[in-house]
Amino acid sequence: MTAMVDRWARGGLCMALTMSGAMSAALAQEVVDVRLTGERQTQTVLAIARVGQSEKVLVQKDQTFESIVQTKCGVVHPAYVQAFASLNGLTNGAAVANLTADATYEFPACAQAPLAESIPIAPKQKSLKSILEKAGAVGIDVSKLDGFQPIGALPSLNTEVDYEAVLKSEGRSGQMALENFVGRANAQMLAVLNPDLSPRRMTPGEALVIPGQAPTWTSISLKSGVSADEAKTQIEEAIKADKGKAEVTEVVTANLISGVGGYGVGYCPGPHPSWPYSIDTLLEARRANDSARPEGVYPRPVKILILDTGFDGAILTQDSIPRDRIADVLGPVPPNPFRTKLGVNLADNQMTAMPPPGLANRLHGSEVAVMALGGRHALRSRELGGIPIQVAFASVATQTPNLSARAIGKAIGFAKRNDIAVINVSLMATAELAEFETYLKTGEDVLMVAAAGNDRQEFGGTTPTWPGGNGGALSHAQGGNVITVGSHDQRGAISPFSRFGGEYVDLLAPGCLMPTFTAGAEGGPAVDVEREGTSFSAPLVSNIAAQLISEGVEVAFVKNRILASVDVDAELEDVVYSRGRLNLRKALSVWRDVVEYHEGAEDGPVEIKTGSVLRPGKILKPCTSDVEVGRLMKLSFTQRVGEPKKAHVWLRPEPSHDPGRMTRKALCTAQNLAGQKITLIEDGTRSRIDIPLSHLIDFVPAFLGP
Fold this sequence. Notes:
The protein has 706 residues and is α+β, with helices and mostly antiparallel strands.
């Protein structure tokens, strides 16, 4: 079966290399969303081919028709073979089975077939054929799994535009040959999904990955002159004729979070070396982790998916984003085995993330990626070059151009298939929230970091946008992991443009004068530029999240760590869920306790020390309830002028509870602090420092280690 897999992979490789440069010049003006289900859908496939914008592909050596179609559509359908033949004027099936290298063919539009899922083999299931039939997988000839024989000629095909007539014109013998070709092609896919599969040895308890199990949406760009209403009518009639359960709707669009309108940026008088963070502080945190990390434990590589407008290679230079900081990814339609650094388009399943012509803010995703890598200053720092973080790109832009909201949810599965831990998203949508949350429930191993928005609104019942509205309280994420990020200025105040919400926006991060790159003059190098907005705050948090995962923090705990390490501010108590701003140094100090306090007096100079706090079993009473030091994830104090001091208490989850659900206690009035203290053994000097709670500003315990 290895030869079968290799042949399929070679075809996918060539497809990816030619797809981006060979798209039809005729761009559709409207779009519909289609979701296929697993049953045979002959009329539906033909209707999509009839109304959708076709695509021109230059065929490369060793490329096959079936590998191109599987890369584009997921499976080969008999009706699609006929549609392709008619569109290209092919009168003999052998010409379809053996495409001519270096020739250009036009491939009809198609919707992605349902995705593959892992199905356990039941004790009484001994036949591969019966397992596939029970799962509803159609069009797979299991007799072809033991070896790949040359494909015989297909029945002769005529060139009529009436695809239904073409499909019926060959009689039973022609249809059998066509079914044989399709069954063999889809058997290839089953082989790729299950490389160790032997149809004669089905072992109960093992899992079989079967295509066609999980319906997913595809945005279909329509031919010029075909309206969305016309396309919907034709596809709906086809679904009815097939007695199928497929769906077609108008495209569900998302909005890009970009620009700050007339709100202004707050106090941001100009760039300076320590904004949005100090490189020296980051280096200090890394060195501290290097010395504290157990022997034999090393940072692991982590990838961030930039889910945005896409990626324009004009910004890719050694002086901006080096090529080794861009991760390669698998194609958007599994099980495509080819990997590409060009990114993918999750709206229309393309093997490139190049933004379509005419798309507003088409360089936005590229500029955001720079911040996800730490910003312009970090990329130019030789000392920071060793951070094992890469970015990958996924566009949600259709060819109209619009931004597809449904592609946001698809990104979660795409990230899981590509071992991507963090998704950075600068998009917001209002429709199909329930559908997105269905995807979100499957993303327990993926963290989504979302920009809050730049329209100065408060999250809540009147603004039910997502994914930003899934941040804050953990219950909002439906079992997934979402951090929603607002913006602050250089004084630490919330930016005038930033969205806010004490139960939805998790924290603030710098959001003005953010140092990135953009494309220079045509053919010239990338140029320096400063941007503002929450869409440039979020990638900074994504970067810190990726560094935490690299250090060994599990994805489910990353949100806990970032929120527990913020600098709390009394002015942010009802503004963001954490009541604070991102603190890079505290967040990354995962192996050591961090204590910030006033030296010598309650209003003395501020000191920040790292080390180990003694006696984790000690009981403190910052307000009226006892708190064990070892249960703390954060203990901070804030005070407004003329008001009593308040305590911010965050607790680790009980061992029997969900480990991701730390507890944010209600703010309480601090009492009797002078008689209580914590004791820190400082790193390096090993000095013992007694810190009265009345002097304490912030205590952030270590997150890793014993």
